[in-house]
Amino acid sequence: MEMIVRAVDVGSGNTKFVNGVAGSEIRCASFASVAYPSTGESSTATTDRRRTVCIPVGPLFYEVGPDVVLAADTFRAKQLHDDYTDSPEYMALLRGALSMMKVPRIDLLVVGLPVALLSLKKTSLERSMMGSHQLGGSRSLVVHKALAVAQPQGALVHYAAEHKRMETIGAEQSLVIDPGSRTFDWLVCRGMRLVQKQSHSINRGMSDVLRLIAVEISRDIGAPYRDYDAIDVALRTGRAPVIFQKPYDMKRHLPLAESVAHQAVSTMRQWIETPESLQNIILVGGGAFLFRKAVKAAFPKHRIHEVKEPLFANVRGFQLAGQNYAMSMGTQGAASEGDPA
Questions:
Q1: Nearest-CA neighbor of 149 among 312, 8, 34?
Q2: N-term to C-term CA, the chain
Q3: C-alpha closest to that of 33 among 73, 75, 72, 78
Q4: Of 45, 55, 124, 148, which one's alpha carbon is 20 to 30 angstroms from that of 116?
Q5: In angstroms, rounded to a whole number, what is the distance separating the alpha carbons of residues 84 and 10?
C-alpha cells in the first residue's frame, strides 16, 4: 500500500493545501481563512452550488471553502492571536482542506507554524492533527502521523528543489523571508537546519497594511470603509478600487503601506548577526510583492531570490519535506503517489 503524504498551511489570510501529487508535480489550492459558524449542518452551500463544506467542530458547524464569501454572515473574524492553532476556526479550516483533498486517509500530514511559535506549539499541534477528523456529511478521515515545521522552512525546501540545489544548499547559509497576512516570519538556516537565535516572527504582516489604508480611506471619504479584499486586490494589481461608484486613487497611501514593510524588515535586520555570510536570501509568501523593495534596501549587496507562486512556496516545501521524511523512515512510493482522485 502506497503511503499518502499531504501538506496544509493554515494562515491567517489563506489556507493552502496540496490536493494532488504526480511525480515531481505538486498541485496546490487555497481558500480564504474564514469560517462561518452555525448550529447545524446547513444545506445552503449544496443548494447554491457554492464551493464550500460544512465542518463540525465541537458543538458548532463551520462553513469554509473558496466560495465562503457567499455565505449569509458578512462578519469576517480573523484569528490574529498566538493561540489561533487551538481555536475551533483553525480546526475547521484544516478539516476543510482535508475534505477537499479527496484521499481515503493520510499517513503523514505536514503543517506549519510561525517561527516564534514553533517551540511552544509544535508538540500540541502535532497531537491535535493525529486521529480521526469529522468532515461533515457522515464523512471522516484518519491522520496517522503529523509533523509541524516552521513555515519558512518549507519555502527553503521548495526553493532548493525548484532550482535543483538540494545537494549544494546543504553547505550554505540561507535567509528565508515570509511576509504573510498576520505575521512577518524569517528563518536563518545552515543547510536545512534552523539557527534559532537568528530566526523569529513578528505580528507585522499584510493585515496591518490593509487596516492602516482602510483607516486612511475612511478619513478621506468621510465614511467607514472596511473592504480589505478590495484594498488587497488594488495593491496587487494597481487597479483602483471602486468606492461610491467611482474609482478611488490609492497612490497617495502607498508610502504608508511601504512604511509597514520597512518596519518589519528593519526589525528582522537587527536579528541577523552576519549578513555578509548569507549565500541565499529567499523571499516568499503572499506579501512578497509589497515587501520586495524593503528587503532589497536592507540587503543592497545581495541578490534576492523569489519562487514561482510564492503563496504556495511553504506548502509545496512541506509536501517535499514530508515525502523525504517518509522515505527516510523506510517507506516507498510517497514521491510517485499519483493523482489520488
A1: 8
A2: 16
A3: 78
A4: 55
A5: 10
Torsion of CA 214, 215, 219, 221, to 10 degrees: 10
Identify the DSSP state of 43.
Answer: S
Note the pLDDT tens digit of each residue in 62-118. Answer: 999 998 877 755 555 555 566 889 999 999 999 999 999 999 999 999 999 999 899
CA distance 265 to 297: 9
Overall residue count recorded for the chain in this entry: 341
Alpha-carbon distance of 36 to 25, in angstroms, equals 33
- Pairing between β-strand 14-22 and β-strand 25-32 as defined by DSSP bridges: antiparallel
User: Which residues have CB under 8 Å from 96's CB, separation 6+?
Assistant: 15, 31, 35, 52, 53, 55, 62, 64, 65
Q: How distant is the alpha carbon of residue 220 from its chain centre?
A: 32
What's the CA gap between 334 and 21, in Å, rounded?
9
Radius of gyration (C-alpha) of the chain in whole angstroms: 20
Domains of the chain from N-terminus onward = 5-152+313-336 (3.30.420.40)
Which set of grid coordinates corresponds to residue 102? 479527496
Spatial contact of 283 and 291, defined as CB atoms under 8 Å apart: yes
Single pTM value for the model:
0.85
